Amino acid sequence: MDTDYKKYNEIAEILKVLAHPIRLCIVKGILDQGECNVSHMQSCLEIPQSTISQHLQKLRYAGVIEGTRHGLEVNYKIKDERIIKLINSILILN
């Protein structure tokens, strides 16, 4: 058994961040669209922009997503290929 649990810290932090239904929905939506902005997320999720921004901040901080600015708009995409594989394996939804 591997006793060097510290090397699993990054993975555990990513899993903690993803362990919220709104954040999972955001990540799945970004994955389905390829890229997505806050306005689109707000219309799909029907929750306040400020709430979405708080969730995006947590996802960015954990390294799950990254944003690219286009004028006043920021488009988000999945930053890490491991996240794409993880979401595809656990969220097999119709």
Structural commentary:
- The chain is α+β, with helices and mostly antiparallel strands and 94 residues long.
- The chain has one domain: Arc Repressor Mutant, subunit A, CATH 1.10.10.10.
- Helix content is 57%, strand content 15%.
- The protein has helices at residues 9-18, 21-33, 38-45, 49-61, 81-90; strands spanning 36-37, 65-70, 73-78.
- The chain has a three-stranded antiparallel sheet.
- Strand 2 and strand 3 form a beta hairpin.
- The termini are far apart.
- The relative contact order is 0.17.
- The model has no long low-confidence stretch (mean pLDDT 89).
Question: Would you kindly provide a brief summary of this structure?
Answer:
With 94 residues, this protein is an alpha+beta fold. 57% of the residues lie in helices and 15% in strands.
Relevant CATH superfamily: Winged helix-like DNA-binding domain superfamily/Winged helix DNA-binding domain
* Helix and strand pattern: HHEHHEEH
Q: Which spans have pLDDT < 50 for at least 5 consecutive residues?
A: none
So what's the overall shape?
Answer: elongated
Note the main attributes of this structure.
94 residues, Arc Repressor Mutant, subunit A, alpha+beta, three-stranded antiparallel sheet, 15% strand, elongated
Topology:
Blueprint: H1 9-18, H2 21-33, E1 36-37, H3 38-45, H4 49-61, E2 65-70, E3 73-78, H5 81-90
Antiparallel strand pairs: 1-3, 2-3
